[in-house]
Amino acid sequence: MKTSSNKIFDPALVQTALKESFIKLDPRTMIKNPVMFTVEIGTLVMAYVTVYSVTHTGQGSALYNFFIFFILLLTVLFGNFAEAIAEARGKAQADSLRKTREETPAKVVGSDGTIIIRSSSLLKKGDVFLCETGDTIPADGEIISGIATIDESAITGESAPVIRESGGDKSSVTGGTKVLSDQIRVQVNTEPGESFLDKMIALVEGASRQKTPNEIALTILLASFTLVFIIVCITLKPFADYANTPITIAAMISLFVCLIPTTIGGLLSAIGIAGMDRALRANVITKSGKAVETAGDIDVLLLDKTGTITIGNRKATSFYPAAGITSAAFIQACVMSSLADETPEGKSILELAALQEHKIMAVPEGAVFIKFTAETRASGLDTPEGGRIRKGAFDSIRNMVLQAGNPFPADTAEQVKMISSNGGTPLVVSVNEKAMGVIELQDIIKPGISERFERLRKMGVKTVMVTGDNPLTAKFIAEKAGVDDFIAEAKPEDKMNYIKEEQALGKLVAMMGDGTNDAPALAQADVGVAMNSGTQAAKEAGNMVDLDNDPTKLIEIVEIGKQLLITRGTLTTFSIANDVAKYFAIVPALFIASIPALEKLNIMGLHSPESAIMSAVIFNAIIIPILIPLALKGVEYKPIGASALLRRNLLIYGAGGIIAPFVGIKLIDLIVGLFV
Amino acid sequence: MNTELLGVIATYLLTLVIAIPLGRYLAKVFAGEKVWTDFLKPLEAGIFKLSGINTKEEMNWKQAMKALLTINLVWLIYGFFVLIYQDKLPLNPDGNPGMSPDLSFNTIISFVVNCNLQHYSGESGVTYLTQHFVLMFLQFVSTATGIAASVIFFKAFRDRTTERLGNFWEFFVKSITRLLLPLSLLVGLILAFNGTPTSYEGKDQYISVQGDTVNVSRGPAAGFIAIKHLGTNGGGWFGANSTHPLENPNYLTGVVELVSQCIIPFALVITFGYFIRRRKLSWMIFGVMTIGMLLLLIPMLQSELGGNPALAKMGISQQTGAMEGKEVRFGPAISAYWSTMTTIISTGSVNNMHDSTMPMSGTWQLLGMMINSFFGGCGVGLLNYFVYLIIAVFISGLMVGRTPEFLGHKVEAREVKIAALIALLSPFLILAGTAVASYVFTTHGEAAWAVQPKSWLNNPGFHGFSEMLYEITSSNANNGSGFEGLADNNVFWNVSTGIVLMFGRFLPIIGPIAIAGLLGAKKYIPESAGTLKTDTLTFSLMTLAVIIVLNALSYFPALTLGPLAEYFTMLK
Question: Which residue from A239, A461, A577 is facing B558, i.e. has the nearest CB?
Answer without folding.
Answer: A239
